[in-house]
Amino acid sequence: MKVLVTGASGFIGRALVARLLADGCAVDAWDRLRGPDAPGLHRSAVDLAGSAPLPAPEGGPWDAAFHLAADSVPGGAWTHHAVIGNLTMTARVIDHLSRHAPGCRTIVASSGLVYAPGAKPHDEASPLGPTRPYGLSKQLCEDWALSARERLQVMIVRPFNQIGPGMAPGLLVPDVFERVARGDATLGMQGRDDWKDFLDWRDAMQAYSLLLRVDAPSGSVWNLCSGRPVRVSSLVRCILAECGVEREIRFADPAVESVLGDPSKLAAATGWKPKHELHETVRAICAHQGHSPAP
Questions:
Q1: In the chain, N or C: fewer CB atoms in 10 Å?
Q2: Where are the domains of the chain?
Q3: CATH hierarchy code of domain 2-163+199-224
Q4: Alpha-helical regions (H) of the chain
């Protein structure tokens, strides 16, 4: 199977490329800075936010594509330019695939933040209503992709919080490690001590691999989440314990929100379920960061 991956140099992109190669796929990887090729892997430097023509597939059209490329730090300094930027990247990819690989299975990474806030876990039929620019950008990207559902075999995946080694600065987990390394006596968290849904990156890769082959109609939507509610403070304490340090944790906003997902649809269609507990994920991240497990 010949597969295109956009955003291939990102945290999820790198892991997905490795998984696809292990599954025996031939992978075309697009990112802004072209890395080295490898057996079964062809990389191209592609700026989806620019205006240069996109590379056409060589040796036949792509059988499938994963569109991961996006400005993907929800808590960053978002403006309308960033929102439109994510839509522009998605529109360019979808239109390019429609011309050069009609019928291609096109898996578009959205976000659980497209859902309207609610106390109950969100399933795929839950009402949409993003309250932050990042979530709005992803809803717009979904709409553009779904408008091509008769030209491509479109699948929308709504990940919640995928965590693992190599996450981008500005996200919760790397920020905690940075503050621990600085020796901050108190960890001042900019956000809230929300209930969130954290998923190990290895479980996410297994789900993406299964979605590549699942029998589903074009336009289908899939939550990618653990279904396990975890307070942000619990994740931070798990990181601190694994690093063998103690810190006071303070949150800037005392309000608490629940952003939880229901993975039942994915489980029923593929048999998938998360295998890794939170402490296993944190241990792997600590090892990647160079922290020895606490005795």
A1: C
A2: 2-163+199-224
A3: 3.40.50.720
A4: 11-22, 80-100, 133-146, 172-182, 201-211, 232-243, 264-270, 278-289
